[in-house]
Amino acid sequence: MEPKKNPQLDLRRNSLLYFFVGMTLVLLMAYLALKWKTYYSDDSWDVGELKVDEQLIEDATILKIKLPDPPKPKIQTPPKIEIKDDDEKIEETVIESNDVNQDTEIAKFEDFAVAEEDIPEEIPFVLIENAPIFPGCENEKTEKDKRECFQSQMLKHIRKNFRYPEMAQEMGLEGRVSVVFTVQTDGSIENIRLRGPHESLETEAARIISKLPRLTPGKQRGTAVKVPYSIPITFKLN
């Protein structure tokens, strides 16, 4: 017959409970060890707690500085006035008046220098007093009518002598040629300047202007001057 053990005396009965209790105690001891704090003893020389007696603070010394006295103003002695005897005779200068009166002589006409009129050598068409006159416009009464007649005759001259260049027709060239020429003091046409889209159109425009008749020159204050004039010539294919 096998002997039976008393369950109350079995050591493995509460082993798990003992294990948890032991682990709890170990953790509690470790926590207390980490949180344990120690403090140094009070040090009377600690800078953070150093207290200075207010009585040791010295008051600022008050210095009394004596400024020098301001300089005394210099008193100038008045000049001595000497009175001399009126022995010398003083001649007073008489200032004559320059006002014009009936006795004033009139300067002669030959004494005046007449300045020559400063007339520019070249004056634009819109600013000149008497514009150049196209042949056939001499009978116009006013200056405005003569200018309008000049422009209308210029347009007639261009239409009459206009020929479209063959090369420009073949190439389909079109455009406007700006023409500027100068009416000289003898009425001739010189200094022709052209600007257009192609050389052939410029050549034709120059040919038309070269056929202009001799004009009556423009005048400024009765003196013949050079007058530049500009006109556009348009080339357009039908």
From TrEMBL:
<keyword id="KW-0812">Transmembrane</keyword>
<dbReference type="GO" id="GO:0015891">
    <property type="term" value="P:siderophore transport"/>
</dbReference>
<keyword id="KW-1133">Transmembrane helix</keyword>
<feature type="domain" description="TonB C-terminal">
    <location>
        <begin position="149"/>
        <end position="238"/>
    </location>
</feature>
<comment type="similarity">
    <text>Belongs to the TonB family.</text>
</comment>
<dbReference type="GO" id="GO:0030288">
    <property type="term" value="C:outer membrane-bounded periplasmic space"/>
</dbReference>
<protein>
    <submittedName>
        <fullName>TonB family protein</fullName>
    </submittedName>
</protein>
<dbReference type="GO" id="GO:0098797">
    <property type="term" value="C:plasma membrane protein complex"/>
</dbReference>
<dbReference type="GO" id="GO:0055085">
    <property type="term" value="P:transmembrane transport"/>
</dbReference>
<keyword id="KW-0813">Transport</keyword>
<keyword id="KW-0653">Protein transport</keyword>
<feature type="transmembrane region" description="Helical">
    <location>
        <begin position="16"/>
        <end position="34"/>
    </location>
</feature>
<keyword id="KW-1003">Cell membrane</keyword>
<dbReference type="GO" id="GO:0031992">
    <property type="term" value="F:energy transducer activity"/>
</dbReference>
<dbReference type="InterPro" id="IPR006260">
    <property type="entry name" value="TonB/TolA_C"/>
</dbReference>
<dbReference type="Pfam" id="PF03544">
    <property type="entry name" value="TonB_C"/>
</dbReference>
<dbReference type="InterPro" id="IPR051045">
    <property type="entry name" value="TonB-dependent_transducer"/>
</dbReference>
<dbReference type="GO" id="GO:0015031">
    <property type="term" value="P:protein transport"/>
</dbReference>
<keyword id="KW-0472">Membrane</keyword>
<dbReference type="InterPro" id="IPR003538">
    <property type="entry name" value="TonB"/>
</dbReference>
<keyword id="KW-0997">Cell inner membrane</keyword>
<dbReference type="InterPro" id="IPR037682">
    <property type="entry name" value="TonB_C"/>
</dbReference>
